[in-house]
Every structure is written in structure tokens, then in C-alpha cells.
Specification:
With 703 residues, the protein is α+β, with helices and mostly antiparallel strands. It has helices at 40-52, 134-145, 149-157, 163-168, 171-182, 185-216, 223-230, 234-298, 301-318, 321-367, 369-433, 437-518, 544-606, 617-702; strands at residues 2-11, 14-20, 77-84, 87-94, 97-100, 107-110, 113-119, 126-131.
Length: 703
């Protein structure tokens, strides 16, 4: 890796510094010099920070590298150009830092930023963007340089005489670093692989030698073969063994061929033996069949002839089975016919007896015919009077029926009159309590409009008051937090100042001791010029290493002290700005509250409703909603009452119509009743006499 150009903006003690390493190409060795705290080590810190995001000093965080002289609106940033291989790389990195907000004067925490790219020249055009996140940039740098941050510090930078630490480190550590730098890991891997293959082959060879020795000592070989092998060298033993194996293989093949021939002969013999067994079984089955024939056929010839005769008889009878079945059916029908004939004979005798009784009754009635003819003539005379009697009876029944109907109609008519009067009274009463629905609806609409007007005017004012109050609470909380931080940072500042003074005093003592050590009698002191050094008081022993460490501690403590001062100064500025913002927010809250109360008072004075003296949007809405609900209930009651009046009006019309029907029906029934009464009065006497005669005649007919 070859550094080309370094730009540092507000990094450590550097405000805006740049180093062009190209100007030093002709000088193989150059010196970076300067006073303590001038920023010499910061150059290496900047290069290390740009590449890896850390510094060369252990324990120093990258956030601490922000310059104490940096304005709040200027960012700490390092830009580093370097060459690796044939490419020119540019890396830009910013640490985590507090910067002024773009929308206000408050400080905001800015996250770290890192970008890595290949460019054509310093300040030139970007050719390829490699990474744009801190984590990705770190990975890419490690791949490009083949070094970690710690290895880079030890090998490339070697700051503050740390090269001796590398030389004193263990061989394993130096070997790992050098392998990674020069890329010799490939050869190490190749050597390791060869060792593994050699070990594996060596192990196989040893195993083979062991197996060969075991085989030579085994009982597989004859004494003659063992004797022959004992006179051969190790290399020749393999050849001899192969000849032994070939010989035995040939003998094995010969024996195997003979065995195959013997197996074929055995299979042929097995087949012949099986055929003989089958033939013997057939002869045995033939003897068994002959014995069964003699036993079942020849010895039972008489029994078989009798069974054949019986079969012939059964075949003859099988042709007559249908005729027998028809005969049985005819016999059953004949039996049923005889039973039916007997029942008909009994019924005929009973019918003859009934006929004789009817004949006797007919003769008796024929003897009484003259008497019946006389009674028939009298009944015809009486039949002429029956319609008149029935008509008189019918008129009397109608009169009897019409009189209660007239009474019922009269009562119904009275009830209808009472119901009609009652309905009329209800209608009049409801009309008196009825409120004008249109008027109620107008009041409701006006009240709803007034409510919407209140809400529309007061809600923005209330929101403004709420937002102002929220800002006041937020700023007050932020101010309290800043004051708490200021107290903590002030204590930290006091500790840092005390630590700085202590370390600075110790450094001065060491420097004085070093000067005292360098004094030579007779030579003037570089501080006071005195050549007499006898009055010198020694307070501490001079130690160059301790002095160097003390100077570094003073630098670190001074940076911490300056950082603490900057933090306290920043907090004081933030507290002042927040206090101003809080006062402004409180004034805005007061103005918004006053305007809200004045507007609320103005609106409530114009309204006919009664409101609370203090503004409360929920209470205000509740009052309006309660009044609107009351008007809604009144409007619903009025509509309901109107519907009831309409229903009662319809009911009264129905009652009046029904009353007219009753009156018409009553008049009709009265007319019919009067007509029936007149008819009844004219003929009642004659009909009564005829009625008496008719009844007497009927009594005689009954006798």
C-alpha cells in the first residue's frame, strides 16, 4: 500500500490540513517533526481511521478525534488516497459526532459515514464504487490490503518505536503476519498436503509389509514352497508367490472342470431314478384299480340290477305326477261346493219362513183398508189449514226475534255515540297539547348550526393552545435534561482539569529532572544561565521512557479536558437557546389561552344557552347535545302525537260510518216489525180458532 494524498478536516488539532505524499517520492526517508500536541501522531491516526475506522492509540475512540476548535456546523472528515496494485483508491470517512441541526440550532447525533471507490486521479472522477457503508468498507479494505487494523499498525506504521515489539514477538506471530503480507500461505498448504500424502502412503506400505509377512508364515504354503521362499530376496518373493498362485489357480480350474462333469452325470442319474419311481407308482395304482373293480363292480352285480329296476319304475311314475296333482285340486273344489250348497239350503228355509210371515201381515192390512181411506180424507182437509198455521207461527217467531235485535241495535247505537264522543274528546285534548313540529325542527336546526359554529371557531384555538402547551412541556423537559447533563459534564470537566493539571505537573517535574540530569558543572544552564549547580534540589529521578509516556498522557488528558470544555460550552449554548425557545413558547401559550377565553366569552354571551365560565370543549358539546336531544325528544313526541290524532280521526270516521249503518239497519228492522205486527193483529183470532180445530183433528188422527 502506497499513500498518495491525505486531507484532514477538524481532525484532532488539524483544522484543514492536507499532505501530498507524491512530493516525497524522491526522498526515500523523511521526518515528521513538531512540538508536542502539534498533530504528528494524528497523521497516522487519520490514515488508520480512514482505512479501518480506529486510531493508532489503544483506548482512544474515533469520536474523540473531533477537533475541539471545530464549529458546530462543520463536520470532522478524513479523505485518504492510496495505491494498491494498479488501482488508485479514495476513501472518505466521518466519525460519529454532534452537529448543528439543519432545521434549528440544536445539536443532533450524526452516525458514522464511510465510502470507498476507485478513481482515475486525486480529486478526479470515480471509476467504480466499492462500498458505501462503514461495515462494508472495513471488509473491502481487509481484502485489498490483506491486513487487519492491528497488523497494519504493527507492520506499516510502526509508530512510536513499536518496530522493536514486532522484532521481539514470537516466531509464530511473525510467521503468520509475514505469510499474510507476502502471500506464502499457498506454499505452506502445498507442503502440508505433501506431508499428508506421504504419511498415508507410508502407512499403507507398512500395512502391506505386515500382511505379506503374515501370509508368508501362514499354513497355506507347503514346506517345499516355504523352503523355496526362504532362499529368495524380498523383491523376488513377490514373483515366486505369483507363480505359486498361478499354479494353484490352474489346478483349481482343472478340478473345477472335473467337478462340473461329475455334477452333470449326477443330474442325469437323478432324472433316470425319478422316471423309475414314477413307473413304479403307475404299476401300484393299476393294482389298486383292479382290486376296487373286483370289490365294487363284480361282487355287487345283483344289488346293481335291483337298483336299475327301481329307477325304471320311478321314471314311469314321474309321467303321472301332473295328473295326480290336478285330481287333488278337483277334490278340494268339490268339497268347497258341497259346503256352499249346505249354507244356501239353510238360507232358503229361513227365507220361506219370512215370506209366510209377510203374507199373513198383508192379509191383515187388506182387512183394515176401509178405515185407512176414511182417515186419509180427513187428513187432506186438515192439510189445507196447515200453511196458515205455519205462517202465523213464523210471523210470531220473527216478531219474537226482531224485538231483541232492535234492542241490541239500539244499545250498539248508544255505545257508538259514546265512543264517538270519547274519541272527539281525546282529539281535542291532544290538539291542545300539540306543539308545532315545524317550529321545533327550526329550533333544532338553529341549535345544531350554533354548535357547529362554536366547534369550528373554538377547536383551532384549543388545538393551538394544546400544541403550545405541548411545546412548553417538551422544552421544559429538554431544559431539565440539559441542566442535568450540564451538572454531570461540569463534574467531568472539573475531574478532567484536575487530571490535566496533575499530569502536566508530573511532566514538568520529569522535564526538570531531565534538565538537571543533563547539567554539567561549569557550563551554563539552558534555563537560567547559571554555571553554579550546587543549590539544585532533586525531587524526582529522570527517566526518558517515563517522560515520553507522561507527555503522551498529558496530550491525551489535554484532549479530554478540551473535549469536556467543548461539551460544557455546547450544553450552555443549548441551555440558553432552549431557555429562549421555552420563554417564546410560554408567551405563545399565554396568548393562545387569552384568545381562546375571549372568543369563548364572546360566543357564550350571544347564545341563549347557559355555559360554564371556564372553557371546556367537552362540557360545551355536552350542553349543546343535551339541548339538541331535548328538542329531538320534543319533536319525536310531537310527531307521535300528530300520528295519534290522525289515527283517532280515522277511528272516529269509522265509528260514524258504523253508526250510520246501525241507524239504517234499525230503521229497516222497525219497519219490518211494524208490518209483521199488523198482519199478526188482523188474522190472529181466526188463525187461533183454526189452530184449535186442527189440533183436535190431529189428536183424532193419532188415535
Amino acid at each position: 500500500m502506497k499513500p498518495i494524498y491525505l486531507q484532514m478536516n477538524y481532525f484532532g488539532p488539524h483544522g484543514n490540513s492536507s499532505i501530498d505524499f507524491r512530493k516525497l517520492d524522491e526522498a526515500p526517508i523523511f521526518l515528521i517533526g513538531g512540538d508536542t500536541g502539534a498533530g504528528k501522531s494524528t497523521i497516522f491516526d487519520a490514515m488508520t481511521f480512514a482505512l479501518f475506522g480506529s486510531t493508532t492509540t489503544d483506548g482512544r475512540d474515533a469520536r474523540e478525534m473531533r477537533s475541539q476548535f471545530a464549529p458546530n456546523d462543520k463536520a470532522t472528515e478524513v479523505t485518504f488516497y492510496f495505491e494498491q496494485g494498479n488501482n488508485l483508491y479514495r476513501i472518505v470517512r466521518r466519525p460519529e459526532q454532534w452537529l448543528k441541526s439543519q432545521r434549528g440550532d440544536n445539536l443532533v447525533d450524526k452516525k458514522p459515514i464511510a465510502k470507498l471507490a476507485i478513481v482515475d486521479k486525486v480529486g478526479g472522477t470515480e471509476i467504480d464504487s466499492i462500498a458505501a457503508k462503514p461495515s462494508d468498507v472495513g471488509t473491502a479494505i481487509a481484502e485489498i490490503l490483506n491486513l487487519s487494523a492491528e497488523q497494519f499498525k504493527k507492520i506499516i506504521l510502526l509508530p512510536q518505536n513499536d518496530f522493536s515489539e514486532f522484532l521481539k514477538s514470537k516466531t509464530d506471530a511473525k510467521e503468520a503476519i509475514l505469510k499474510k503480507i507476502f502471500g506464502t500461505q499457498l506454499y505452506s498448504d502445498f507442503t502440508s498436503k505433501l506431508k499428508e500424502l506421504y504419511s498415508a502412503d507410508k502407512k499403507k506400505n507398512e500395512t502391506f509389509a505386515t500382511d505379506l509377512a503374515a501370509q508368508l508364515d501362514s499354513d497355506n504354503w507347503t514346506d517345499e514352497e516355504k523352503e523355496q521362499l526362504s532362499h529368495e530376496s524380498d523383491e523376488q518373493k513377490i514373483v515366486v508367490l505369483e507363480s505359486f498362485v498361478d499354479k494353484r489357480q490352474a489346478e483349481f480350474y482343472s478340478v473345477e472342470k472335473q467337478a462340473t462333469e461329475l455334477n452333470k452325470q449326477v443330474q442325469t442319474a437323478d432324472k433316470n431314478f425319478q422316471s423309475a419311481k414314477d413307473l413304479d407308482k403307475q404299476f401300484s395304482d393299476l393294482d389298486t384299480a383292479k382290486h376296487d373293480y373286483q370289490l365294487n363292480i363284480v361282487n355287487k352285480e345283483t344289488e346293481i340290477s335291483a337298483q336299475q329296476q327301481h329307477v325304471s319304475e320311478l321314471q314311469w311314475a314321474d309321467g303321472l305326477k301332473d295328473t295326480l296333482r290336478d285330481l287333488d285340486s278337483k277334490n278340494e273344489e268339490l268339497k268347497k261346493t258341497n259346503d256352499r250348497s249346505q249354507r244356501l239350503t239353510v238360507q232358503m228355509k229361513l227365507s220361506q219362513k219370512d215370506y209366510q210371515s209377510a203374507t199373513n201381515k198383508s192379509e191383515e192390512l187388506t182387512a183394515q183398508k176401509a178405515d185407512f181411506d176414511q182417515k186419509e180424507k180427513q187428513s187432506k182437509k186438515l192439510a189445507i189449514l196447515i200453511p196458515d198455521i205455519e205462517r202465523v207461527e213464523r210471523i210470531r217467531k220473527e216478531i219474537t226475534k226482531q224485538e231483541p235485535e232492535l234492542s241490541v241495535l239500539q244499545e250498539n247505537l248508544s255505545e257508538q255515540d259514546e265512543e264517538l264522543q270519547k274519541i272527539t274528546s281525546q282529539i281535542d285534548a291532544k290538539k291542545e297539547s300539540l306543539t308545532d313540529s315545524d317550529k321545533l325542527q327550526t329550533q333544532k336546526d338553529a341549535l345544531t348550526h350554533e354548535k357547529d359554529n362554536f366547534v369550528e371557531i373554538l377547536t383551532p384555538l384549543e388545538n393551538q393552545k394544546f400544541n403550545d402547551k405541548k411545546d412548553v412541556n417538551r422544552l421544559q423537559t429538554h431544559l431539565d435534561e440539559l441542566k442535568s447533563q450540564l451538572q454531570s459534564k461540569t463534574e467531568n470537566l472539573q475531574q478532567s482539569q484536575a487530571d490535566f493539571e496533575e499530569k502536566k505537573g508530573h511532566r514538568q517535574a520529569l522535564m526538570i529532572a531531565q534538565l538537571q540530569k543533563e547539567l554539567v558543572d561549569g557550563e551554563p544552564c539552558v534555563v537560567c544561565g547559571s554555571i553554579d549547580h550546587s543549590h539544585m534540589i532533586k525531587t524526582i529521578d529522570a527517566d526518558e521512557i517515563e517522560l515520553k509516556a507522561s507527555m503522551e498522557q498529558v496530550d491525551k488528558s489535554q484532549n479530554q479536558f478540551a473535549s469536556a470544555q467543548k461539551e460544557v460550552e455546547t450544553l450552555n449554548n443549548n441551555i440558553s437557546e432552549t431557555t429562549i425557545e421555552l420563554n417564546t413558547a410560554q408567551d405563545n401559550l399565554k396568548t393562545a389561552t387569552q384568545k381562546l377565553n375571549e372568543t369563548y366569552l364572546e360566543l357564550t354571551n350571544k347564545s341563549e344557552l347557559t355555559f360554564d365560565t371556564e372553557f371546556n370543549i367537552s362540557s360545551l358539546k355536552s350542553i349543546f347535545e343535551k339541548e339538541i336531544a331535548s328538542l329531538t325528544e320534543q319533536l319525536a313526541a310531537a310527531n307521535k302525537l300528530t300520528a295519534e290524532i290522525e289515527k283517532l280521526t280515522k277511528d272516529s270516521q269509522k265509528v260514524a260510518d258504523k253508526q250510520n249503518e246501525f241507524k239504517l239497519d234499525l230503521a229497516t228492522k222497525k219497519t219490518a216489525l211494524e208490518a209483521n205486527q199488523k198482519i199478526s193483529n188482523k188474522s190472529l183470532l181466526s188463525l187461533a180458532m183454526k189452530h184449535v180445530l186442527v189440533r183436535k183433528s190431529l189428536k183424532r188422527l193419532k188415535l
